Amino acid sequence: MILRRFSQALKQQNWTAISIEFVLLVAGVFLGIQVANWNEARGDQRAYRDAMTRLAEESAETLRSTAEIRTVINEMLSDVQPAIEVLRACEYGTTAEATVNKGLNTIRSSRGAGAVTIAVDQLVDEERLLKQQSDAVRVALRQYYSRLHDINSTSEFVTSAANAGIDAHPLISFTDVLNSSGTFNGIDIRRAQINSPMDKACRDQSFLKLFYNWERSHIFQLKLIKDLETVVTNNVRLLNLADFNAELAESAK
Fold it and tell me: Where would I find the beta strands (DSSP E) of the chain?
């Protein structure tokens, strides 16, 4: 509309109309750019707030999962450590063998600390989100990112080493197929068991070391869980994440 009137005024050499239409045209373009910039800025602000909300939710989820994993590891240790003591004392008999077999099946699996990092990964990588952060927040998020990934990678390494080579040990054999519904994961459908007399098993240091190694790695996992809880709790406070999540706000009281 404006362009049509502007073109017509040029043909008629109506300089007053040309000036008015030119001002309107420039103002319209400028206003359009400003509105587009305003919408983009609002979109970036909304994306940043959404990302911080997800970070708060993931932090709350990490705190929940660490509490659950700590409980599971302590329960697993309550199966493994009696087996260690039976082997150290070189006990024998039905009860002693059952204790060792129970511990043996426990050390065939592992649990470890772990944090969800999807939101913090986005917050330190995406340019539009970085622009919404103050220098202090940017530094805090980068440190949070580094600590979470350090703990995750350490936990993964410790977990992978915890039960490496257990099933290949010559003193270990397996039962017939069990009903998978009776297993904790639906996968281990055969139970591990020692295939030699207890007095021989207790003298095999390589067999005992399987238990020691698992115990040591999971004591370390408990330390990592404590470290992870400290990191998350400190950053919830530092980044004011309780403002974005009711569960964190409640726990902060």
Answer: 172-174, 192-194
How many structural domains comprise the chain?
1
Low-confidence ranges of the chain (pLDDT < 70): 1-44, 164, 179-188, 247, 249-253
Give the rounded distance of the alpha carbon of 21 from its chain centre.
Answer: 59
DSSP for residue 240: T
How far is C-alpha 233 from the chain's CA centre?
14
Q: Does the residue 7 lie in any domain?
A: no
Beta partners for residue 172, in sequence order:
194
SS3 192: strand
- Distant-in-sequence, close-in-space partners of 113: CB < 8 Å, separation ≥ 6: 66, 69, 151, 152, 155, 221, 224, 225, 227, 228
Evaluate whether residue 8 is within a structural domain.
no
Residue 212 lies in a domain: yes
CA distance 170 to 204: 10
The pLDDT score that the predictor gives to residue 153 is 96
> Which domain range does residue 107 map to?
15-251
* 6 lies in some domain: no
Residues 160 and 109: beta-carbon distance below 8 Å: no
Q: pLDDT at position 78, please?
A: 97
Rg of the chain taking only CA atoms, in angstroms: 32
pLDDT of residue 146: 97
pLDDT digits (tens, 9 = 90+) for 55-91: 999 999 999 999 999 999 999 999 999 999 999 999 9
